[in-house]
Amino acid sequence: MEQQISITVDDDHLQDVAGVADRLRARGMQVDQVMGSIGIISGSVPSGMRQAMRQVPGVAAVDSPVTFQVAPPGSAIQ
Fold first, then answer.
1. What is the pTM of this model?
2. What distance in Å separates the CA atoms of residue 36 and residue 6, rounded to the nearest whole number?
């Protein structure tokens, strides 16, 4: 099963976000989006691979993405 993750790139590697993304791909991450200007890489990894992503040079943090839902129009709670 795939698990969605967001990677924060450390300050020392902000000039090489694309390189960090390449290293994450080489370790098995399906990279969906690279946001170089803010140092975030999002994508998915197979279950159990999250810890391996922390070991990639340039990775400061591995987090689950924050999600939210808006109640449908006409719902009692808006």
1. 0.83
2. 13
